[in-house]
Every structure is written in structure tokens, then in C-alpha cells.
Amino acid sequence: MSKLHAIVIGAGFTGVAIAHDLALRGFAVTVVERGPIVNGTSGRTHGLLHSGARYAVNDQESAIECIQENQILRLIVPDAIEPNGGLFIGITDEDMAYREKFIEGCAACRIPIKELTPQEALRLEPNLNPKLQTAFTVPDGTFDPLRLALAFAASAKSNGAVFHLYTDVVDLLTDGQGNIVGVKAWDRATDKRFEIRGDIVVNATGAWVGHITSMAGISVPITPTPGVMVAYDQRLTQRAINLLNKPGDGDIVLPQRRMMVVGTTSFTIEDPDYVPVYEDHVQLMIERGSNLIPALRQTKERGAYMATRPLIGASAPGRSISRTFKAYDHKETDNVEGLVTITGGKATTLRLMAEKTVDLICKKFNLNIPCTTAETPLLSYRKFYVN
Amino acid sequence: MTEEKWTVKFVIFRKKGDQPPRYDSYVLEVDPDEYVIDGVERIWAFHDRSLIFAHACHHSTCGACGMRVNDVEKLTCITKIRDVTTNGGSLKIEPLRNFPIIGDLVVDMTRMYAAMDRVHAKAVHPLSAAPLEGEGIRPPKDVPRNNGDEYLRLADCIECGLCISACPVAGTAENYLGPAVLAAAQLQGLKHNPDLLDLVDCADGLWRCHSAYECTAVCPSNVDPGWRIMDLRRQVVGERIKRWFVKA
Ligand SMILES: Cc1cc2nc3c(=O)[nH]c(=O)nc-3n(C[C@H](O)[C@H](O)[C@H](O)COP(=O)(O)OP(=O)(O)OC[C@H]3O[C@@H](n4cnc5c(N)ncnc54)[C@H](O)[C@@H]3O)c2cc1C
Ligand code: SF4
């Protein structure tokens, strides 16, 4: 029997992880991406390999997914991760009021934490706000977004996946009855148009999933929700520093190479193709970031950027929407065969999102092939370019 | 940033497949404190969807967005428009040199990745292996430790290829390893990685370098490849002498 052919639209974290999983489970895979690898939301993430502690109070489903995936990614893609852990620090009395809930939440989600005295915390990280009242260690990490994605893409490629980069999906091919049988593509590197036929089309376009489904006359309930991040020109801590409080704006500061990166904000928009970096958001990042690490104020801005979350839920406001992901089989939701959409989630849970999506695809084709991505170390990101 | 608005003409190198290259101009209203990549992305978003360019992280950790801006190699996500042109001025944007062009502003950097792979350059290493002298943490002699364990960090070299584009030798010698690659070998040290010696001590290795230091001038990420190549030469001479004595 010849292999089933899956077409994956989008080479963000979701798309590359799905391509890798599909290729491992024996599918012929073609990835179609309109830019380079992770040019969309994924490249521009903050870069926190979540321990889950951020969600341990308000969104335990996310928290549990994060801690499990965090431990898996450290093992399968060490090339892309600074695995130095993180701290949650409480500064005000209001932060301290969150302490009990935080401890309980982390215990419920099995996130290993340890409380430090302010002196111990400052000994580990001398640049923390000296007014801190408490600190907890958590197993956070930092990742390099491009190298994380390239490791998945390289592994997919070594198992036969074909990548068409700088190639837009401009329309879906139908069988005349509205079912999807492939894509129409425009290769912008050579300015050539062509069609690709497949047994299943996977829409992994993040904040753009609605553009693709609209080509099939379907709408999906996602809200593009951008946030701004600012990078500063000095490495001031070794760990990810989080504010001990419910998730808010500018409450995470990460080290990365020789930088610190502060993030993020959250607001909703209509069209994610271009979102400017708003000056007041940049100001907010330095205000909030220097609450955690005062020395940031004396540090030069190195870059400012934004990315758009593909949050699930039609019109609910930014941060309260659950961050877990959804995979839709449009046969079930809209009676359109041949199209699956996956959206939501986080960088930290990319492997799990892929596992669930490919499980769903295997079930559609009555295949019983187990997922092995959790146990399969990824190739070096450089192998995407070098055979 | 300010409320200031500038008008800037972006003159962009274009090339599709076998068609001859050309330059297209786009006049944009910009905030001078925006970064060059923001302007390029806006051209794609609002003026010309056929444009292709490489980018990912937009804050200098990934190395994807290297381009030539007014004839100088720049990482466009951290290059403020204010620093490379004036109000009413222009910005010529071209792909990096010394790599094959895929289209428009995108090049194929396989040459560099393959060579980085050959010297097994580390993507992540201990703080002590690449100290951050005076960079907001303690000096290398007193590298902070994580309860006895080493802290790890992502390497300085982001494999952006700017140094290879700027290098006068890389332009003429196709197989020359190039500054980033030699710097990666230097960082690991020949003493602890003797297998690197023959790789770097050859015709396409470090003796090709003419000490132009263009690499160091354009490196956006604190690698200082020029200095590292000179240091690697000292290491090579040292290792050769050592081996000669062992043989004799
Ligand atoms: C501000 C911010 C900070 C974040 N920080 C973190 C963090 O620290 N840690 C964490 O774990 N998660 C973080 N996230 C979440 C995480 O980044 C996202 O969940 C994830 O990147 C989404 O990936 P994706 O592949 O679904 O989407 P994307 O990365 O956007 O991928 C979609 C791809 O589809 C392509 N595409 C779109 N239309 C077409 C078309 N017509 N044809 C072909 N290709 C097309 C796009 O070019 C794009 O590359 C953050 C998100 C935001 C917004
Ligand atoms: S040495 Fe510097 S310029 Fe060269 S690839 Fe590395 S970061 Fe870029």
C-alpha cells in the first residue's frame, strides 16, 4: 500500500511538530509555508519553556501539560534550551496573598517548587529586586525559537517530509462536493503556481487558521491576541524570573544568550498579518520588568517585537481564554472531509499538540500507530540544511 | 521611541527564479526608532505580497534576518532605521553576499551550517566555556554556579552569516570555512578537541584569513571572530609544536 499523503499548512511550532509526528508514523508529508520556518507567531515568542507554574492556579489543565512537555523537550531537544530553571518572586503584600494558592496549585499539578528566603534568592540572582519577600524555584527554561522548530523540521525531513518554504496556500482544492483534496500553492521564490493533492490537509496556521478555513467556507472560533516583548542588551540573571501573582502584563523576564527579554502584553485584533509594536507597550515592559529586576532600567533596549496568540474562543477577552489547544476534524464540525484544523496551545506544548492531532488523523484512517515523539531525540537543527 | 515620523525610500533587491534581478522602490512613513525589519515586513504586508525575506525572532536570538543595508551587513531586527539613514533618505536592502540567492532577500546558508556542523560547534554551552566578561554578571574567574551545577546558555554565535558575507576571502574561496566556523573551533579549544586541528589547519582553514577584520566589524552578537581566528592560529602553532615533540 502506498503511503497516505498529508499536507501541512504552516511551519510554525504546530506545523513542524505535526510534520515530524506524521513522518514518524509513516505518512508522506508535504509542508507548505508562506515564509521561512517560524516567521509567524512561533519565531517571535517570548521564549519561556513553561514549567506550568504560571497556570497552576487558574488553568491547571495547561499547567499539567506544560510540566510534562517541559520535561520531555529538555531530553529530546537540548540543543535549543537553556535549562537553568526559574524563580517566582513575591514583592508586595498582594503578591504574598497569592503564595498559598500558588503552593497548592503547583502541588496539585506536580510541579516541583522550593521556597527560598530573600537572602538565598539574592545570592542566586543578585540582580533581583532587593525588596522581594519570598521566592520559589521552578523548572522553567528558555528556548531559542528558530532552533527548537528547526530540530523538529530537520527530523521530519530526515523521515522524508518535503518543505515548500516561501510558498503561500492560496486556495483549497475540492472534489466538487466541497470535500478537500489538496491545496493551490504560490511559490514566491520562483513566482510559480502549482497544485498539491493529498489524502488529508492539516491547517496549522496559528492565528491565520480562519483564513484557510474560509477557503472552504468554514469559520473557526479563534481570537488573534498579540503581545509585545522587549529585549535588553545585558544578561542580568541566569533563570527565568516571574512575578508571584496571577498572570498579567510584563510579569516575566527571561535571560537568553546575552540578553534579557521582558514580556508581554495582551490585546485583541482582527488581522494578524501586521501588528505594530506600540510605544506604550514598550514603556510598560520596562516599568513592569524593572519591578522584578531594577537594573533593567540602566540597560539599553536591543529589540522590540510582537507576536499574535491564536487563542480559542470567539470574542472572549485576552487573558481569560483557556490556553489549551483544539484540533477540529471538519468532517465532524462542518461535514467537510479532508481538512483538520489545529490551533491554540503554546510553544511548550508543541509536541503534545502534534500527538493529539496525529492521533485524530490516524483514527480517521482507521490506523493504529502509536506516537513515539516523546521518546525520539530530535536531530540537530543544522540537519535541516545539511543532509 | 518618539512621535517623530520620517519618510524613507526602501530600495529592495528583487529576484525570482531565472529572471534577471532588479531593484524596486517603496516609500514608507516610518518611526525612526523602528527597526529595519519592521519596514521590510510592512512592504510585504501592505505593498507587495510577492516579496520574500528571512526572519523569525525579531530580537537577535535566531540570526535569520541578516541583510545588506546600504552596503553594510546588518541584523535588521536590531538595526534602528535612525542609525542607517536620515529623514527623506533611502535604504538599499540586498541579500547577504557569498551565499546562493533563493529569491529576493533570501539566501541559502547551507555552506555555513555544514561547516558549523563539521566543527561540531555547540549551540548551548556552560557559562564557564563562554564567560560574559563584565556583562552584568561576575567575571569569568568567578562564574556563578547553580548549586554546584554549571549554568548553560545559548552560544553567542547566532549563525547569522553576516561575517561570511562581509569577508573578502569568503567571496573568492568557496570552500573557505569562514569566520563564524573558525571562531566556533577557537571557542572549543584545540587542546580539548584535537580532532579539530586538521580541519582548521588546512588550505581552506585559518591560513586563508587576511586579517581584514570585516567579520568583527559586522558581527552583531559579541563573537569577535577576527580576534578568535588570530587566537586559533596561536593554538594551532602550539599544538603542532607539541605533536612534533611527542613524535620526536
Ligand atoms: C506574545 C507571545 C508570547 C508567547 N510566549 C510564549 C512562551 O514564552 N512560551 C510558550 O510556550 N509559548 C508562548 N507563546 C505561545 C506560542 O508562541 C504559540 O502558541 C505558538 O507559537 C503558535 O504556533 P503556531 O504554529 O500554531 O502558529 P504560527 O507560528 O503563527 O504558525 C503559523 C504559520 O502559518 C503560516 N501561514 C499562514 N497563512 C498561510 C498560508 N496561507 N499559506 C502558508 N502558510 C501560511 C504563517 O506564515 C506561520 O508561519 C507566546 C505567544 C505570544 C503571542
Ligand atoms: S560570528 Fe557573528 S557574524 Fe558570524 S555568524 Fe556568528 S554571530 Fe553572525
TrEMBL record, chain A:
One Pfam family it belongs to: DAO
Keywords, comma-separated and alphabetical: FAD, Flavoprotein, Oxidoreductase
GO molecular function, one term: glycerol-3-phosphate dehydrogenase (quinone) activity
Protein name as annotated: FAD dependent oxidoreductase domain-containing protein
Protein family membership: Belongs to the FAD-dependent glycerol-3-phosphate dehydrogenase family.
Cofactor: FAD
GO BP, sorted A to Z: glycerol-3-phosphate metabolic process
Lineage, top ranks: Bacteria, Bacillati, Chloroflexota, Anaerolineae, Anaerolineales
Highest taxon above the source species: Bacteria
Span of domain FAD dependent oxidoreductase: 6-330
UniProtKB/TrEMBL annotation, chain B:
Superkingdom of this protein's organism: Bacteria
A GO molecular-function descriptor: 2 iron, 2 sulfur cluster binding
GO biological process terms, semicolon-separated: respiratory electron transport chain; tricarboxylic acid cycle
PROSITE patterns: 2FE2S_FER_2, 4FE4S_FER_1, 4FE4S_FER_2
Domain 2Fe-2S ferredoxin-type, first and last residues per copy: 9-99
Catalyzed chemical reaction(s): a menaquinone + succinate = a menaquinol + fumarate
Matches recorded under Pfam families: Fer2_3, Fer4_8
Pathways involved: Carbohydrate metabolism; tricarboxylic acid cycle
InterPro entries associated with the record: 2Fe-2S_ferredoxin-like_sf, 2Fe-2S_ferredoxin-type, 4Fe4S_Fe-S-bd, 4Fe4S_Fe_S_CS, Beta-grasp_dom_sf, Helical_ferredxn, SDH/FRD_Iron-Sulfur, Succ_DH/fum_Rdtase_Fe-S
EC assignment: 1.3.5.1
Matches recorded under SUPFAM superfamilies: 2Fe-2S ferredoxin-like, alpha-helical ferredoxin
EC supergroup of this enzyme: oxidoreductase
UniProt keywords, alphabetically: 2Fe-2S, 3Fe-4S, 4Fe-4S, Iron, Iron-sulfur, Metal-binding, Oxidoreductase, Tricarboxylic acid cycle
Cofactor note: Binds 1 [4Fe-4S] cluster. Binds 1 [3Fe-4S] cluster.
Cofactor: [4Fe-4S] cluster; [3Fe-4S] cluster; [2Fe-2S] cluster
Record-annotated 4Fe-4S ferredoxin-type domain positions: 148-176
PANTHER family, alphabetized: SUCCINATE DEHYDROGENASE [UBIQUINONE] IRON-SULFUR SUBUNIT, MITOCHONDRIAL (PTHR11921:SF29), SUCCINATE DEHYDROGENASE IRON-SULFUR PROTEIN (PTHR11921)
UniProt similarity note: Belongs to the succinate dehydrogenase/fumarate reductase iron-sulfur protein family.
Protein name, UniProt field: Fumarate reductase iron-sulfur subunit
Lineage, opening ranks: Bacteria, Bacillati, Chloroflexota, Anaerolineae, Anaerolineales
